[in-house]
Amino acid sequence: MTTTCDLNVDWNKCSNCVRFKERIKDAEEASRAASANLDRAYAEYREDVAAGRACIATPRQRAWSSYLDDLEMEQSLAFSHWREAIDTWAASINEHHRLHEDRQQETEEDDVLRDAVRAIEHGGTIQIRGEWDFGYRHGRRAALRELRELRELLDDMIASIDDDTEEGV
Fold first, then answer.
1. Residue 47, H or E segment
2. Is residue 79 part of a domain?
3. What pTM, to 2 d.p., does this model score?
4. pLDDT (tens digit, 9 = 90+) per residue, 10-41?
């Protein structure tokens, strides 16, 4: 699913996700209106049957039957659209949440690396603020692998700085 979501905000503040939620309300209203029309038609049909105007196997009864079938089809279709709107909204908010979390994770990782580089450049010690959360989709092995890669990168940077310092002395 391609998203046009604003990943800078949570899904409940995203205009795209809100638009999908509004479609649910519209589809629900259409479904309720179709159900109300069907209920009204059945009430009128029962009145005709009770008054003897729509006896079984008469043209009027067949017309009622066809009309009620059409209304039932409309109600079923309206309900299907409502269900589709709910499914689309759910998919949108799930995708938004996933992409938002991924983006937050990348930002946190970039911040940690930037802090480490600044500390090395200024001759300080590396102190990572906060916790480095690898998210719900990453396991412990992935977290350790990421930390090892960061450690190797930092070791290479430190070695490069040491080499530059020795050459300048």
1. helix 15-50
2. yes
3. 0.58
4. 777 888 888 999 999 999 999 999 999 999 99
Rounded-to-integer distance, Cα 114 and Cα 126, Å: 11
Is 48 domain-assigned?
yes
Domain housing 110: 15-128
Nearest to 30 by CA among 75, 89, 85: 75
Hey, what long-range contacts does 99-107 have (CB within 8 A, 24 or more apart)?
A: 99/3, 99/5, 99/7, 100/5, 100/7, 100/10, 100/11, 101/135, 101/136, 102/135, 103/7, 105/133, 105/134, 105/135
Split into its structural domains, the chain has a count of: 1
What is the CB-side half-sphere exposure of residue 165 using CA atoms within 13 A?
10
pLDDT per residue over 102-125, tens digit each? Answer: 777 766 666 666 666 666 566 554
Instruction: Report which DSSP code applies to 12.
Output: G
**The two structure tokens encoding residue 124:** 């300080």
